[in-house]
Amino acid sequence: MAQSDFATGTPSARAGSAVRLLTVTATELGGAALLGIFLLSDETWVIVLLLAVMGAMFAALQLRPQTEDSIVSAFAEARRPALLLGGAIVLLFPFFMQGSSYALHLLIVAQLYAVLALALNFQLGSANIPNFATGASYGIGAYTSALLAVTFGVSFWLTLPVAAVVATLFGFLLGFPSMRTKESYLALVTIAFGIVVHQLLNNFSWTGGPNGLVGIPAPVLFGHSFASPIEVLGFRLPSQANFYYLSAALVALSIVSAKRLHNSRVGLAWNALRADPLAARCQGINIVWYKMLAFGVDAFLAAFAGTVYAFYVSYISPDNFTFLVSVTIMTMVIVGGMDNTLGVIIGAFLLTMLPEKLRIFADYRLLFVSVVVILFLLLRPQGLFPQRIRSYGDGQ
Amino acid sequence: MTAPLLETRNLTIQFGGLVALNDVSLSLNHSEVLCIIGPNGAGKSTLFNLISGIYQPTRGSVHLEGRDITGQQAHRIAERGIARTFQSSRLFNDLTLLDNVLIGMHTQTRAGVLDALLRPRKAKAELDQAAERAGDLLHDISPELYARRHSLAGALPQADRRRLEIARALASEPKIIMLDEPSSGMDDRDTDALMADVRRVMAERPGLSFLIIEHDMRLVAALPDRVAVIDYGRKIADGDFAEVRLMPRVQEAYLGQKAAAHA
User: Fold this and answer.
1) CB–CB contact A279 B102 (8 Å)
2) Best mutation target, A276, A288, A392, A396, to test chain B (most B CBs within 10 A)
3) Do residue A265 and residue A277 come from a single domain?
4) Residue A82 lies in a domain
5) Looking at the structure, do residues A332 and A263 belong to the same domain, yes or no?
6) N or C: which end of chain B has fewer CB within 10 A?
């Protein structure tokens, strides 16, 4: 629609689309700049200042909801330019990181957590299923692909789908008890599942026990090893950049999946299940099946993240996939906003990077996470960015 | 004469020691309106919960078009064409009116996870089409509801909640629609407006059968073809309202023994 405005539009329509393009550009570049400064500065006061700026911007959006609406509608109208610019920013971002491998590392971890949080969002956000086992699915994915690669020499690209299928099967398995249990009891079942998986990984000899798996080979794409730096046009990016792009692609895949499922009959059925399971059943929704589907989709995406993680760090142990990881992922969804894709991603970035940048948070990480959850559940249970209303057809 | 559309045979359910519904046999014909009346706690809503598969009967059976559907899951029964509303309307409060009706169309649409992920165009086309039909249906029930179709269901006043619930139930294109006390919690004016809408729906859909629980005698007299009276879990009368109203057992159940003696 934006394009046709340029070609045939009246002067006012043209001015409108220029404003939209400006809004989109300013929002995306502003966000990227904030993230960039945040990643590169080591001074505590700069970080605190940035947080204050973000807080002020958020408060401004809360006070003037029209502003938020106009930004959202600008993105909806100028969808193609927004996507192109966003893609370009993601592509060029590592070049502005001054070769800092630490900044890239943070970005990779944040992106993997964003994928995990989006995966959990299908359950917690869409269907209100409290799943404390996303960390376990993440681990199952990581171990499956690592074992395939280390013992059988299978290529990374092949282990990716295999790990996803294996984790999905486990996800369905975990979904079985959801036929019989609900709410807090279901939460207990998932906690138990997470602990069982962690204990098994710790105690089996073929998983390497507590020592984990070592020497997972770096993926190779068209002869380029992911362990070697990227060199283009005289620029040299540290080897982490390979995984940065890989995890960015995974985030993009997760966003597309999240959008498509949310705006579908399945997303509606999950939302019905969240609002009133009994009424949902009476609309012909097989709630057991839809709960199991949510477990499956969650495990599928989490396994992708697990595989990328395993090949990125090349060494995994059971302690990477504890109950605490699941709780952290859950916090990200709660903070970011239930059933809001952008919100969940922002939640993941904030909760990954804050403890890294502010040592005081790192020392009291668990305390920090708990306080954040309690405060959000009390003060803003819908999260930073609440779910948005669906639209159909031509926005009707 | 063919088999009735819906039939319950000796339907009984026991909760621990309490027999909530005892040996109730009822039948509902094609395009018929049957009203279930009876005092509070008589077991009327329990009967609905048994028919819609939320409870499993201790004894007895439910047949739809001659087919035994006893003990089937609630979503299967909804699929077979029995839609319902609830006494304390159970809408999806955090979704829009349009989404509520769209969810009512769950049995009319097909797209699954793989369609949504891999064939988004097809899934979207199906949903857009359904959304258009949902909008039309909402407009049919009430133009005011249609105008508010993008706002959240939780914000609706009581009478409109009932209307939306009826629209949601109609969205599945059912054979039978069960309304659980549509007038509950509303004043006379709202009730009259709502019942006018219900009568209009009935007139527009001559093939549809209605099973209505009602408390308000005024409405019962105005609405149905036939009434069945339930008291203490048993069916004590079944027939024309004018006849049933005069039966001593019915008057006792409604007014108490002494008052019935004076009536």
Assistant:
1) no
2) A392
3) yes
4) yes
5) yes
6) N
Residues in chain B with CB shorter than 8 Å from the CB of A122 are: none
Query: Is B106 in contact with A275 (Cβ distance < 8 A)?
Result: no
CB A267, CB A126: distance < 8 Å: yes
Does A395 contact chain B (CB < 8 Å)?
no
Same domain, A200 and A327: yes
Nearest residue in chain B measured CA to CA from A272: B92
Contacts of A334 (CB under 8 A, 6+ apart): A124, A347, A373, A376, A377, A383
Rounded-to-integer distance, Cα A228 and Cα A239, Å: 5
Residue A148 lies in a domain: yes
A258 touches chain B (CB under 8 A): no
Check whether residue A42 and residue A122 sit in a common domain: no
Indicate if A189 and A86 belong to the same structural domain.
no
- Pick among B50, B51, B75, B179 to test the A interface (most A CBs inside 10 A): B75
| A354 min Cα distance to partner chain B (Å) | 32
- Please identify, among A62, A96, A130, the residue that sits at the C-terminal boundary of a domain: A96
Q: Looking at residue A200, what is its pLDDT?
A: 92
Helix boundaries (H) for chain B: 44-51, 74-79, 97-104, 113-118, 120-141, 143-147, 158-171, 188-204, 217-222, 241-246, 248-255, 257-262
Query: ipTM of the predicted structure?
Result: 0.92
Residues A18, A158 within the same domain = no
Candidates A260, A275, A276; nearest CB to B116 = A260
Q: At CA B209, angle to CA B208 and CA B215, rounded to 5?
A: 130
Which backbone phi and psi does B112 adopt, to 5 degrees? -110, -170
d(CA A229, CA A173): 41
The owner of tokens 């106009």 is A70
Listed as ranges, residues in chain A with pLDDT below 50 are 1-7, 395-396
Report yes or no: B175 at the A interface, CB cutoff 8 Å: no
Domain extent for A68? 1-96
pLDDT of A303-356, one tens digit each? 999 999 999 998 998 988 988 899 889 989 988 888 888 889 988 998 888 888
A267 and B54 within 8 Å at the Cβ level: the answer is no
Nearest by CB to B117, from A260, A265, A391: name it. Answer: A260
Residues of A in contact with B133 (CB under 8 A): none
Q: What is the largest CA-CA distance in chain A?
A: 72
* pLDDT digit string, tens, across residues A1-14: 344 444 455 666 67
| A301/A172 same-domain check | yes
With respect to residue A387, please indicate whether it lies within any of the assigned structural domains.
no
B102/chain A closest Cα distance in angstroms: 8
User: Between chains, do A286 and B73 touch, taking CB under 8 Å as contact?
Assistant: yes
pLDDT tens digits for B129-188?
999 999 999 998 889 999 999 999 999 998 899 999 999 999 999 999 999 998 888 888
Domain ends where: A81, A96, A111? A96
Residue A174 shares a structural domain with residue A243: yes
Q: Is A377 inside a domain boundary?
A: no
Mean pLDDT of B251-261: 68
- Chain A residue numbers with beta carbons less than 8 Å from the beta carbon of B106 are 265, 268-269, 272, 283-285
Q: From CA B65, how far away is CA B4, in angstroms rounded?
A: 6
Structure tokens at A226: 């992911």
The predicted model scores a pTM of 0.90
